[in-house]
Amino acid sequence: MLDLHPMATRGFTTAEFAQRTEAAQKIMVRQGLDAMLLTTEPEVRYFTGFDTIFWLSPTRPWFVVIPAKGAPIAVIPEIGGPSMSLTWITDIRTWLAPQPEDDGISLLTETLRELMPGGGILGLPMGHETHVRMPAADLAKLQAGLEGVALADATEVVRSLRMVKSEAEIAKIARMCSIASAAFEDLPSYIKAGDSERQAFAKFKVDLLQKGADDVPYLVGSSGPGGFENVINRPSDRVIAEGDMLLLDTGALFDGYSCDFDRNFAFGHASDAAKSAYDLAWLATEAGLQAARPGLTTTELWAAMAQVLEEGGCSGHQIGRMGHGLGMQVTEWPSLMPGDDTVIQAGMVLTLEPGLAFGGGKMMLHEENIVIREDGAELLTRRAARELPIIT
Amino acid sequence: MLDLHPMATRGFTTAEFAQRTEAAQKIMVRQGLDAMLLTTEPEVRYFTGFDTIFWLSPTRPWFVVIPAKGAPIAVIPEIGGPSMSLTWITDIRTWLAPQPEDDGISLLTETLRELMPGGGILGLPMGHETHVRMPAADLAKLQAGLEGVALADATEVVRSLRMVKSEAEIAKIARMCSIASAAFEDLPSYIKAGDSERQAFAKFKVDLLQKGADDVPYLVGSSGPGGFENVINRPSDRVIAEGDMLLLDTGALFDGYSCDFDRNFAFGHASDAAKSAYDLAWLATEAGLQAARPGLTTTELWAAMAQVLEEGGCSGHQIGRMGHGLGMQVTEWPSLMPGDDTVIQAGMVLTLEPGLAFGGGKMMLHEENIVIREDGAELLTRRAARELPIIT
After folding, report:
1. Measured between alpha carbons, how far is residue A330 from residues A7, B58, B138, B166, B188 in Å?
2. Residue contact B210–A206, C-beta within 8 A
3. How many CB atoms lie within 10 A of CB A341?
């Protein structure tokens, strides 16, 4: 098969993991952190390369500790030992989980005590877009066992690192965006009025897999006569009819990195209201593409798109922002919204996602994925059609 | 297409959600809880029916409060309002998220204060297999705003309810097990030596979707000459060769309910060691099937399988248990393991998952899914072949 998608190798070099760790340690030193505890999938994968879908099981906690100096330490259930030993991590400490009465807590306590024998400050991401993936009672137990160790919020350490992607990360996202662009372009050949939403979504998912996506964890959308009111739905048994609008929005994965964009389609014909809404969202996206560059803030990039919508007589939507970071997760820091004020840097991968309400509660959303380069935005998705595609 | 899979309607009746809520409230009263706060996807879906893949985005927290009396209250980002309003929930309170400085916390505080004006005890699942899906700093903020309200662990409320499935839940799991059984039975017709693991897994995933799975979030496995050493891997580019063993283990979804079972295959030929290991795991599963019944404990059910393995000269594996609950998640409470001691009840859906090491570090795992009936185990999966299937 001719492969038209950008090259991307699988995995990362050990050098890249070492660089990520050192970059984290620099910030940790600035913030006075003696160690950092990570409990969530993207953070563990970012620093170790440990990539398993086993996180879907809520049974076992997984811990990675970043010391102030040296390589990360994995404190994980024994079932993950063989997989973790394939990564660059050499200090792997395991316990036979599940073990509700002590599910790794004494092993983790011991590890942290070893790093901070006289006490110290332990960083833990506790801020926006984070959570602690372990039983709250176990976190309390851990704190009780770490006398002399204070917890401090380490959100900024992971946030600032993960927001700016390496070329290897960008290549994976670019490849995924290319695969999904091709699937969206081919969609009119295999989705027809008369399909149920469920059938249409399944066909699209299968096409994504056959075109090279590893997985399609995120696929939402909606259909309805002349438009739709709801944009985060799973598909229903509703049958798509002539005169309907259809939105599909996918976060599919290549080697653990996601795209996140949508496309709109009309069936048979479209109202002038829908065509105008499409046009306005397209132009707002275009304004975002032109404006995005290093040095601008996320709030300013939001404003560039919002201005087009306002001038077009619309006032946005209830999604609360017009784009966000993209990478290992389908949404990441930062948010394109008033008050976010993150300074955009080269290497950030962002979605541009302006949307508006029209025709009495209907929604129109556009979305493209870009990487910020020194001289502005580089599109990773193939641009949405200039005019609303009509499937006949 | 002739549909050979068990019937299962989509969704649940309002009566079922009301029953779940009332059952929770009975336990809450016994435990002295004035309200319960839920933050995780399965818990929110269990009590409301709110079903969206939007949880994959870490950006926004979602809250459901179960009062001591009356229907649940949803405190959620505005983007989820239209979807939540399609459920039985009528008290839906929204804020425009993301809003890092106050991401629903004041709205949630107000809601809880309204329910507990003079203070009280707020249940929050904090025990094994739970986590709190909101920023830890926001949980601290919530607690600070709730003077006079003490937190108490509510794990047992959701654990005891979710462990015992309704007939409607069982029907969904049964349908998913039937679809995956059919996909496993057809697998030898479309997976061949010469496929890479990645190609083989993709074909299986596509077949699951085409046979009626809504989604295949969980698919792990491994291949290797004469066996494999690692059972939670994503597929690699390794090419499957004659003489290899292949394990696939899937948690695919029908209407939000999962199967979780695996099948083993050999290519071309299999060693006597592999055949013996397969036989022993099959017999251990059989012992589990015969033993499982209401009144037995999970520890005793584990022992019934462990005894067969021991008598066969093997001592289990590093997975730490030999099965678990199954339902909305690919693994749920309880665990079949020493010390779990949960009394098995009719309506529990369990996996039987005995495994063993053989041939120097290789693994053999079998898995079936059952529902406990008054008179014993009812298979939901179609039983694994009596002898190791060899794909030629």
Report:
1. 21, 9, 23, 34, 35
2. yes
3. 11
Q: Residue B193 and residue B246: Cα distance in Å, rounded?
A: 10
**Superfamily for domain range A14-161:** Creatinase/prolidase N-terminal domain (3.40.350.10)
10 Å CB burial of residue A23 (0-12, 13-18, 19+) is middle
Q: What is the ipTM of this complex?
A: 0.96
SS3 B93: strand
Q: What's the CA gap between B380 and A66, in Å, rounded? A: 44
Tell me what pLDDT residue B5 has: 78
Give the CATH number of domain A164-391: 3.90.230.10
Angle subtended at Cα A134 by Cα A131 and Cα A136, rounded to the nearest 5 degrees: 85
Distant-in-sequence, close-in-space partners of A84: CB < 8 Å, separation ≥ 6: A48, A50, A74, A76, A92
From its phi and psi, is residue A159 left (phi > 0), alpha (psi between -120 and 50) or beta?
Answer: alpha
- The second-level CATH assignment, the architecture, of B14-162 is 3-Layer(aba) Sandwich (3.40)
Q: Rounded to the nearest 5 degrees, what angle is found at the Cα of A56, between the Cα atoms of A53 and A59?
A: 120
Q: What is the DSSP string of B199-221?
A: HHHHHHHHHHHHHT-SEEEEEEE
What is the reported pTM?
A: 0.96
> B-chain residues within 8 Å CB-CB of A179?
none
Domain ranges in chain A are: 14-161, 164-391
Find chain B residues with C-beta within 8 A of A362's C-beta: none
What is the per-residue pLDDT for B1? 44
Task: Check if A14-161 and A164-391 are the same fold.
Answer: no
Residue of A nearest to B213 (CA): A202
According to the model, what pLDDT value does residue B3 have? 62
Tokens representing residue A73 in the block: 């330490």
Q: Which residues of chain A have pLDDT under 70?
A: 1-4, 316-319
How many angstroms away from the CA of A99 is the closest CA of chain B? Answer: 8
Which two tokens mark B7?
């019937």
CB contact under 8 A, A52 and B234: yes
CB contact under 8 A, A135 and B134: no
Strands A92-95 and A73-77: parallel
Q: Do B131 and A126 touch (CB under 8 A)?
A: no
Q: Where are the alpha helices (DSSP H) in chain A?
A: 14-30, 41-48, 81-84, 105-115, 136-144, 155-163, 167-186, 197-211, 272-291, 298-311
Compute CA distances A346 → A163, A170, A308, whole Å.
10, 11, 25
The one-letter amino acid code at A21 reads T
Q: Which residues of B are less than 8 Å from A140 in CB distance?
A: 126
Query: Are B135 and A128 in contact (CB < 8 Å)?
Result: yes
3-state secondary structure of B362: strand
Q: Determine the angle formed by the axes of helices B105-115 and B136-144, rounding to 10 degrees.
A: 40
**Phi (first) and psi of residue A309, to 5 degrees:** -65, -45
Distances (CA, A) of B52 to A63, B45, B158, B218, B371: 28, 9, 20, 17, 27
Residues in chain A, how many?
A: 392
What string of pLDDT tens digits covers the 392 residues of chain B? Answer: 456 678 888 999 999 999 999 999 999 999 999 999 999 999 999 999 999 999 999 999 999 999 999 999 999 999 999 899 999 999 999 999 999 999 999 999 999 999 999 999 999 999 999 999 999 999 999 999 999 999 999 999 999 999 999 999 999 999 999 999 999 999 999 999 999 999 999 999 999 999 999 999 999 999 999 998 888 888 999 999 999 999 999 999 999 999 999 999 999 999 999 999 999 999 999 999 999 999 999 999 999 999 999 999 887 666 679 999 999 999 999 999 999 999 999 999 999 999 999 988 899 999 999 999 999 999 999 999 999 999 99
Across the interface, whether the CB atoms of B234 and A80 are under 8 A apart is answered no
Half-sphere exposure (CA, 13 Å, Cβ side) for A43? 29
